[in-house]
Each structure stands twice: as C-alpha cells, then as structure tokens.
Design a protein that fits this description.
This protein is an alpha+beta fold. The protein folds into two domains: about 120 residues, CBS-domain (Roll); about 130 residues. About 45% of the residues lie in helices and about 10% in strands. The strands form two sheets. A three-stranded antiparallel β-sheet has the order 1-2-3. The longest helix is centred in the middle third of the chain and has 25 residues.
Length: about 250
C-alpha cells in the first residue's frame, strides 16, 4: 500500500481575504495551530501568509502586505508518494527537504490541500515508515538465519527473552507454516545480534556509522509503533536522513 501526498494532506483549507487584518488572522492561526494559511484572490489561492511573519507587526495591517506569492516550488502533486522505498527517489520527504520547505500546497484539480511537517506525524504517514522498518527486520532476520547457527544467536539472548520468543513462535506457527524462530526477534534484539556477530559490514556503511544507523532505526521503529512524533523529535533534515539511511540498509541487505 503506497501512501501518497493526497492521502495525508489537510483538505479543509481555511482561506483568508487580502482585506483581513493581522489580528484576526493571527488569532485564527493560533487557535488551530496553523503555520501557513492561503489567501484567496478573485476565487483562487494566489498567495499565502506564515504565522511567524505576522508576529511583531501592526495588528491592524492588512495581511496582504505580509503575504508571499505562490511559487512553483510551493506546490506538489497529490500522487507523489510520501515515501518511496528506493534510495534517492523523488518522494515527498526528499522534495520538501531539497526545497527547504515546511509546507506544500497539494494539487489535484487545483489546490485541494496542504501538507506541513506536522502531517508527517499522522498515522497515515507512519504506514510507509512501518513498511520500511518491516522490510529491514525481515532482511536482517534472513541475514542472521543465513550467517549464524541457530544455537549461537539464541544463546545471546537472556533466558526470559528466549522464553518469550519461543512463546511467540508457538502461538503463531500454526497460522504461518513458514515462520522461523528468528522471525520472532524484535528490532532491538536483531540489532544486538547483528552487532555481536559482526554483521554490521553488511549494512552498506562503515562500522561506526552502521552502528549509529542501527540506533536510529530502532528509535524510529519505537516512535512509529507508539505513534510518537518523528518530526519535531528530530529536525526535518535529520528525519529525512534517517529514512534515507534505512532505505540504503534495505538495499544493501537485498
């Protein structure tokens, strides 16, 4: 399932008139936590105003005096994938990062919505992240299965962890005949085994960087699974880099 820009955009746009005053617009933007708001001129969105640009200016000013014209790099098609699993792909994350933008107006038949960094913390936006993480877990489990004898990697775990994995396996094997014991490892356990048995060189990075990437993957997995904000915890560029590194790891493990 590929999640596209149109799937996570905010559709019910609150638009303002060029004649609106700063005090009323700023009050509305603060009330609904809008960072950006479009300005409609002659029935079409032609400009936008940013909340940060209205702070410290005269409250009686017309907002048109503090507005920015809508440019091509403020726009994005609704079919653009939020995250494309291929390294270096032109997905929403990379495009917004390249443009150094905190928002994009989404086009379908005209401007139909907006995406800001906050929208990337939504459950929908988390779906492609979860898919990338699941791909990593599956590939890393294959690596462990192929490179380490069953008894060796199992002995790395505590007695409690071994018992938990055996329980998971017994509960699920009837529904999945192809399930292996290694498939019941969680991300933290996978990463520990990859480090312990010196498999980090298979991840496509130098050893020290590979270990940092593993930490980032585990942190990202925990944030996504617990529906915690991923943009905000990191800067946007840091978040994009973590996702890009995860794509590269998945490619290296294929």
């Amino acid at each position: 399932m590929r999640i596209k820009a149109g799937d996570i955009m905010t559709e019910d746009l609150t638009t303002f008139s060029p004649e609106d005053r700063v005090n009323s617009v700023l009050e509305e933007m603060n009330k609904f936590s809008f960072d950006v708001a479009p300005i409609e001129i002659s029935g079409h969105i032609r400009k936008y105003v940013r909340r940060k640009d209205l702070k410290g200016v005269s409250e009686t000013d017309r907002i048109i005096g503090h507005a920015e014209p809508l440019e091509e790099d403020d726009l994005l098609g609704s079919e653009v994938p939020v995250i494309d699993p291929s390294p270096g792909s032109r997905d929403l994350l990379n495009i917004m990062d390249e443009r150094d933008k905190r928002f994009a107006f989404i086009l379908r038949d005209g401007i139909e919505g907006i995406i800001t960094h906050a929208d990337l913390n939504s459950v929908q936006a988390g779906v492609p992240l979860y898919q990338l993480i699941s791909e990593y877990e599956g590939a890393a489990c294959d690596l462990i299965y192929d490179e380490i004898e069953h008894g060796r990697w199992l002995s790395h775990l505590t007695d409690n962890e071994q018992g938990e994995i055996e329980d998971i396996y017994q509960r699920q094997v009837d529904q999945d005949a192809d399930l292996r014991l290694v498939d019941c490892l969680n991300t933290r356990q996978i990463n520990e085994i990859v480090r312990e048995y010196e498999l980090v060189d298979r991840l496509g990075f130098e050893e020290d960087q590979a270990k940092e990437v593993l930490d980032d993957i585990e942190g990202l997995r925990n944030d996504v699974m617990h529906q915690r904000s991923v943009v905000g915890k990191h800067t946007f560029s840091e978040f994009v880099e973590i996702v890009s590194d995860l794509k590269l790891v998945n490619q290296a493990l294929k």
